[in-house]
Design a protein that fits this description.
33% of the residues lie in helices and 27% in strands. It is an alpha+beta fold. A hairpin with a 2-residue loop joins strand 6 and strand 7.
């Protein structure tokens, strides 16, 4: 059951208590608990979505919490929100929709932490797993956020109006199926072989060639080293499926077919990266690409070349990097309040009162976890637009602007954001405030980062052999392979090369140069002709 309580939260809360008292087993969600922004349809859609997933998610979280208690866990069970912040299980069980992109969001938080450690301001967080590829942006050290997202296609998608990290995704992953369409075109994804039966090379009954099968046929994966050698891949089966389903109908060699499939996949993922950069007025070529997920390091260099990105960074243990990012998340409560007002007529006393009320609510929501909080921080922002516009942009507003009653400073910040987003601004035009945004953040203790052992430029100690690998630019090349666990800080490897580890393989193409930093991250400088 969902209640539309935006216009009168007090009545909505009272109605919710009455319904819950009458039917304790019924999952009830009220719109004011999720969104206090205008736009009736989006807010209703968000509330309905929360009511739809709520009963199952609440049950799932309850089972997890019970299991942890039964096993003697004496810590606190926290959940990652789509905003990249943490909230406790009680709030997670009522505002389930805030977990929509929790896994990908944690990866972006991990990327922000990595960037801070190595002094990098701008980066694209690229996560490729078995079914999808996702991307978010770190710009000037901050994670780029959005106030809403459309889940699904434009015609049938479901709009959700919640603060979250701006993450775009495309149905391209290691299990994405390649097929020939009725018109003779080659298509990759979004259909996936999933975990069962999985790619053909897994030997679990899969018959459709996938991206993983292509990587195996091209030599980018070793049949006897997958998952550290725990699982043997069936190369002949993968090659036969590619030949039967793709190569023969298109009159291609299986290797050429596999290469074409990967190039199509890389192009699709490049477009997805452009959605989070170009659509914000940012040039992807100005960013480093931080690639993780089980399949991210396999394809990162191909995507970087498509986008003319000069540097790729592969974090330590990329297959578990999103879980790593969770360890660096903080408790967070985001609140938004619609407040239409021309900037020239906005009262700073009224603004301060509204922000303080939201900050008080945020602090109260985090109070249950106060024992874990080292320091409390507050961030302020506003959705603004020029008078006469329909859509607004979010502007970060330091508290100093309010203390100084700096109306011109607020306008200048809005003009700058508008210039970046749309390529133009109008300093002489009047602006108006649409909504006020507040984020209350409870900073938590973080795990210490451990450096890797230091070595010289030579990576000879990590060398494990050679095999033939096919690259689009050069064809088959005798390529050295290295054990990532044995690489040391300062090691330098000239491509082509493969860096293998338990959950992933990093591809270094010919003429690219890889170096290892103090924390074991792999930095790949992309060669440009």
């Amino acid at each position: 059951l969902f209640l539309n309580s935006y216009r009168n939260p007090a009545h909505g809360q009272r109605a919710k208590r009455i319904v819950e008292a009458a039917s304790p087993a019924l999952f009830v969600t009220a719109s004011h608990e999720l969104s206090q922004e205008y736009r009736e349809y989006e807010r209703t859609s968000t509330t309905a979505a929360n009511a739809y997933v709520g009963p199952r998610v609440r049950s799932y979280l309850s089972e997890m919490d019970g299991h942890l208690k039964d096993t003697g866990f004496d810590g606190t069970f926290l959940v990652v929100q789509s905003s990249g912040g943490l909230f406790d299980i009680e709030e997670a069980q009522s505002s389930c929709i805030r977990m929509l992109e929790s896994g990908p969001a944690a990866g972006v938080i991990g990327t922000r932490t990595l960037c801070a450690n190595i002094g990098l301001k701008n980066a694209i967080a690229f996560d490729m797993g078995g079914t999808t590829a996702k991307a978010g942006v770190i710009y000037d050290g901050d994670v780029l956020m959005t106030g809403g997202v459309l889940v699904g296609g434009y015609a049938t998608g479901l709009p959700l109006q919640i603060p979250m990290i701006d993450i775009q995704e495309v149905g391209t992953g290691g299990g994405s199926i390649a097929r020939i369409e009725a018109g003779g075109g080659l298509r990759v994804g979004p259909e996936s072989a999933g975990a069962q039966p999985g790619p053909v090379c897994y030997g679990q009954g899969g018959t459709e060639p996938t991206i993983t099968d292509c990587n195996l046929v091209l030599g980018r994966l070793a049949p006897d080293r997958f998952l550290g050698g725990e699982m043997t891949l069936d190369l002949p089966a993968a090659r036969a499926a590619l030949e039967t389903k793709i190569a023969t109908p298109l009159a291609l060699d299986p290797v050429a077919a596999a290469d074409g499939i990967l190039r199509i996949a890389a192009t699709k993922m490049s477009h997805m990266v452009r959605w989070v950069t170009t659509e914000r007025g940012l040039d992807a070529a100005d960013f480093a690409l931080v690639a993780y997920g089980g399949a991210g390091p396999l394809h990162a260099v191909m995507i970087a070349r498509e986008l003319r990105i000069a540097k790729v960074i592969i974090p330590f243990a990329p297959g578990h990097f999103s879980a790593y990012g969770m360890l660096f998340a903080d408790l967070r409560r985001d609140l938004v309040n619609t407040w239409f007002k021309p900037l020239d007529a906005a009262s700073f006393d009224d603004l301060e009162a509204l922000y303080r009320a939201m900050e008080k609510t945020g602090a109260e929501d985090l109070a249950r976890s106060r024992d874990m909080i080292v320091e409390m921080q507050v961030e302020r922002g506003a959705d603004m637009r020029y008078v006469g516009q329909e859509h607004a942009v979010t502007v970060h507003l330091p508290r100093e602007l309010f203390a100084a009653h700096d109306r011109a400073g607020i306008k200048a910040r809005f003009d700058a954001v508008h210039e970046t987003r749309y390529g133009y601004s109008a300093p002489g035009e009047k602006a108006e405030i649409v909504s006020l945004r507040s984020a209350t953040i409870g900073l938590m203790r973080k795990p210490a980062l451990e450096p890797v052992a230091t070595g010289g430029e030579s990576a000879e100690d990590a060398f494990t052999g050679k095999r033939t690998v096919y690259f689009s630019a050069t064809g088959g090349v005798d390529t050295p392979t290295y054990d990532r666990a044995r690489l040391k800080a300062g090691n330098r490897i000239e491509g082509p090369a493969l860096i293998e580890e338990h959950a992933s393989t990093t591809v270094v193409e010919p003429k690219d140069v890889l170096t290892v930093d103090a924390f074991g991250n792999l930095h790949i400088d992309i060669w440009r002709n």
